[in-house]
Structure prediction request, 394 residues.
Amino acid sequence: MTDAAELRRRTREFLAAHPPAETGRLEFLRARFDAGLAWVHFPEGLGGLGAPRSLQAVVDAELEAAGAPDNDPRRIGIGLGMAAPTILQYGTEEQKKRFLRPLWTGEEVWCQLFSEPGAGSDLAALGTRAVRESGGDWVVNGQKVWTSSAHLARWAILIARTDPDVPKHRGITYFLCDMTDPGVEVRPLRQITGEAEFNEVFLTDVRIPDAHRLGEVGDGWRVAQTTLNNERVAIGGMRIPREGGMIGTVTKTWRERPELRTPDLHQRLLTLWVEAEVARLTGERLRQQLVAGQPGPEGAGMKLAFARLNQAISGLEVELLGEEGLGYDDWTMRRPEHVDFTGRDAGYRYLRSKGNSIEGGTSEVLLNIVAERVLGLPAEPRTDKDVAWKDLAR
Prediction:
């Protein structure tokens, strides 16, 4: 299945058999997955047809033109962008068949249990423990933090320490955790925006069957790299139209409110517009590279640019609006299903964008990744490289 015309024909036949106006949303999405039109580059039987990734655009265009429902990708972004590619690469056949379909249709929301209070930028220092019992199950105890969508999630991708006697990168194992199991407690973390899209998660004697382990015991760090590389691409390489996203919001205000303009703001807006367009085109190139293989460290550069641009653009917008920019629409405590940068006011965008340089890997850590893995610069000295995790100072 490598021909665009054949794929277009298949999509049209699918639409004829499942008219969007006459088919329930969930029924339509399930049928689309089963027809191999969810991720065309995935294997047959797992939502795909084994076709080139680039041909997904052919399917999407036909479905959009027909008014077909989507799977609300902003709500299930962690599942789509992080859990799915990791399960596809490392999961057993049983795991792939169990998890990928409800993940893609949005029936099961996913979250990511990686960061901890003492292991954020230095994620490999994590201390959440998973101990294997004689019957094969794992018992997990620990705390995770900054967990997006944990209040909505049915499943989580989880990394935990299974061997404290080896250096920190080697004693980690990757699991799929049922968020409805006893011992899983989710608490909201209210942010500077007033919302609580993030959470802290406490794990107390949570039992995870060995069948929900992803990859080999002790190989969790390598599995997690697949997740993290995909995460950075998902955050920094989102497909947006020209003059879309936050730069589009500011330029719209500029055109509609000429009384706010000054020469200095004009120059700064032009500079940021060009930088936003360069970032958008670079993201397109990165997605084209993905057609040939797995995402690499280049995603770190895109995520860096995304954070810096969002913060600069939101700051310019507040200045442009003057006193209006100092207002705030609603401080009500809410637990949203996704981040809405363009649906709120300038004050929200300014405050929320501060988190862009922290979430998905801090900008400082990503600068190291770009320096070492993209530019080939010498690595920073690491004194804990060969020290057992249990002997590290904490």
